[in-house]
Write a structure and sequence with these properties.
The structure holds two protein chains of two kinds. Chain A is mainly alpha-helical. Chain A has ten helices and no strands. Chain A has one domain: Orthogonal Bundle (MetI-like fold). In chain A, helix 3 runs antiparallel to helix 5 and helix 4 crosses helix 5. By secondary structure, chain B is an all-alpha fold. The termini of chain B are far apart. Classes of the chains: A mainly alpha, B mainly alpha.
């Protein structure tokens, strides 16, 4: 009974407010993309460099552990006291969330490239930069993308919490059940889930597109979050 | 300030000069409100997390054994758990209210769901980690399927299981803060209260947030220690 009527109401909400949901979804995409961009800009170069020189595993691995231990609510609260309410605060808090998985997986990806392959490349006269570009990065791609997927899905699925601090996005509907009722909350949640799934699948497609053909066989499909867990 | 036992909205007009001026961090406030706000919230958070992880494990473990035995079950179970992960926590807590009300039960159901997402794939991966030839050898020695499971696959799965537990516990502590959106319990509540002020009260955010992070890291360290005891052969592989 409850389930059926909630289902119907949710559909009705979507049918009645497609524009509103789309606007909010777009806001959320903006917020998430900005956060992911910052996380990438910070974590990707650092992970690549640390992996290339095989140093700093403590930092690279510790980043995930510490990152996971930082609740988004705490991040939002703490940054709020520094950056004030709104977009910037939430963007930074979500970026912190995405940094851990990207850093760890990038580091692991580059660090674990077969040493023999790297030696062979060096023997062929490649410079360190050439080795990084032509050997290590392509071989690290599968793990790198796993990190990116974990970070992106986590950011998109967590972004609604940002609305407790004036975040914008679908969370505005989710945290305001008083105005939008349960049907609105459900409809917005379904939108968030669809966004997360789209981001996940989109990145999987992108990974396939940028992986050199010779390596495609080796990049096994991965469930989100799994790599980070092991 | 305040009363009635529950956490109190800090009143900038009272307390010492540090609290009145909302300085960066007021030890005096922490000291004064440990017994009525921070202490109980910390304890509630421990309870919240422990219940969720214990129930989550009790569900995930048999499911993983089933998926290990009947491999066809893994893809559907894996997909369901991956889908669960994309439900925003702040929404899931509310979605459960029509069924179980604004109760501890709603909070726990949501938290248990998230632990399943983490525990199930990790336990399955652990059970799969026994090398094929080791299992062959055991079979050759005449061990039954059950003996192979109990004496070989399970012990070898221990490191992966503990790794899954670490992530599950830390994530539950983390998501548990959001439970306070529904129920005035746990370390999230003081933070929500502080955020509800026109000027968020810094000390309360820092103190409750710091406790949440410390709790997560302490649990993580404890599980690392547990693995050393349970599976001393597993060299501390990174992360």
């Amino acid at each position: 009974m409850i389930v059926a009527s909630a289902f119907v109401d949710t559909f009705r909400f979507v049918a009645d407010n497609p524009g509103f949901l789309a606007t909010k979804a777009l806001e959320q995409v903006e917020l998430s993309a900005a956060a992911l961009g910052i996380a990438l800009a910070l974590a990707l170069p650092l992970g690549v460099v640390l992996g290339h020189v095989h140093r700093g595993s403590f930092v690279a691995i510790g980043a995930s552990i510490v990152g996971r231990a930082l609740p988004i609510l705490v991040l939002i609260g703490v940054f709020l006291t520094v950056l004030g309410i709104g977009f910037v605060n939430n963007m930074v808090a979500l970026a912190v969330l995405g940094t851990g998985p990207i850093l760890t997986n990038t580091y692991e990806g580059v660090d674990r490239v077969d040493r023999d392959v790297v030696e062979a490349a060096r023997g062929m006269g490649m410079t360190p930069l050439q080795i990084l570009k032509a050997v290590e990065l392509p071989l690290a791609l599968p793990l790198l993308f796993t990190g990116l997927q974990v970070a992106a899905v986590t950011i998109v699925a967590t972004a609604p919490v940002a609305s407790v601090a004036g975040g914008g996005g679908l969370g505005d509907i989710i945290v305001n059940q008083a105005s939008y009722r349960l049907s609105g909350v459900l409809a917005a949640s379904v939108c968030v889930m669809a966004l997360s799934a789209a981001v996940y699948l989109g990145l999987a497609g992108l990974q396939r597109a940028v992986t050199p053909r010779g390596l495609r066989r080796t990049s096994v499909g991965t469930v989100p979050i799994r790599k980070e867990q092991l | 300030m305040g009363g009635g036992g529950g956490p109190v909205i800090p009143d900038f007009g009272q307390g010492d000069s540090c609290v009145r001026g909302d300085h960066t961090f007021c030890w005096s406030w922490v000291h004064e409100h440990w017994s009525d706000t921070l202490g109980p919230a910390l304890w509630e958070h421990v309870e919240l997390t422990a219940i969720a992880v214990v129930i989550g494990f009790a569900i995930a473990f048999p499911l993983a054994l089933l998926a290990h035995r009947y491999r066809r079950l893994e893809p559907p179970l894996g997909t369901v758990s991956a889908l669960l992960y994309t439900i925003p926590s702040i929404a899931l807590f509310q979605i459960l209210v029509p069924f179980t009300g604004i109760t501890w039960t709603s909070v726990e159901i949501a938290l248990v769901a998230y632990t399943l997402v983490i525990l199930f794939p990790n336990i399955v991966a652990g059970l799969r980690s026994a090398p094929e030839d080791v299992i062959e050898a055991a079979r050759g020695m005449g061990l039954t399927r059950r003996q192979v499971l109990l004496r070989i696959e399970l012990p070898l799965a221990l490191p992966a299981i503990v790794a899954g537990l670490r992530i599950a516990v830390v994530s539950t502590v983390s998501i548990g803060t959001i439970a306070a959106f529904l129920l005035p319990k746990g370390l999230g509540y003081p933070i929500f209260v502080a955020l509800a002020n026109p000027t968020p009260f810094k000390t309360e955010i820092y103190a409750a947030g710091g406790l949440a992070v410390a709790l997560a890291l302490a649990c993580d360290a404890m599980l690392v220690g547990l693995r050393r005891v349970l599976a001393p052969w597993s060299k501390l592989e990174r992360a």
